[in-house]
Amino acid sequence: MNPVIELLNSHRSIRKFTDQPIPQETVKTLVQAGQAAATSSFIQACTVIQVNDQDKRNQLAECAGGQAYVAEAPVFLVFCADMQRNKLACEMNDAEINSGFTEQFITATVDVALFAQNLTVAAESLGLGIVYIGGIRNQIARVSELLELPELVYPVFGLCLGYPDQNPEVKPRLPVEVVLKQDSYSDSGDQETIAEYDQAVREYYQTRTGGNKEMTWSEQMSGMLVKEARPHMLSFLQDRGFLLK
């Protein structure tokens, strides 16, 4: 163990923030830390939009399913997968981008995730708290319109930033034995290990909610994954110039 590993293992989602503002210079420093993340073939396909306008914030909170902290957090960022900038780079060199490939969608989206996680770790190292907001994809077309996103750009998720005004427990993760495989994939024994993990998750929820929520991880997954998962996403992404081939 060292301080970096301890910081990573102490991550919690924070949904209540103090009124203490975050200096813009700190936001810039965090974005620079995000830029330092690995990027596939140097494409650097992440654009971050800091949303300051309160009316836009309120509308984004509504798009995300009424998550009030989107409107209230000191800083709200939207992370976008951006191949428009790469198109511009091609035009600067009298070349025409051959866009629409699934591989481009994957690499741009992975770039965003790596960038955001670097930024998150940097933020937590400064005593800030964060929560990712995937809910902006509930109404992704409206979000894109609010942010005036062009073709070849799509919003992957949002991020609330602020100084924590709560101290939640760390949510238990799956046992390493379930996640780390040797030489090939095998789920032999995973069911028994997950059953034990389920009890730890049940106890976590009971403690966190004062007994108002009693659910295991596998119950949560089985309840969620039998439902449609934002079926509008494919057509939206194709309209944006992604996943065409």
UniProtKB/TrEMBL annotation:
Transmembrane segments: none annotated. Keywords: Flavoprotein, FMN, NADP, Oxidoreductase. GO terms for molecular function: FMN reductase (NADPH) activity. Residues 10-163 form the Nitroreductase domain. Its EC number is 1.5.1.38. PANTHER family: OXYGEN-INSENSITIVE NADPH NITROREDUCTASE. Belongs to the flavin oxidoreductase frp family. This is Oxygen-insensitive NADPH nitroreductase. It comes from Amphritea pacifica.
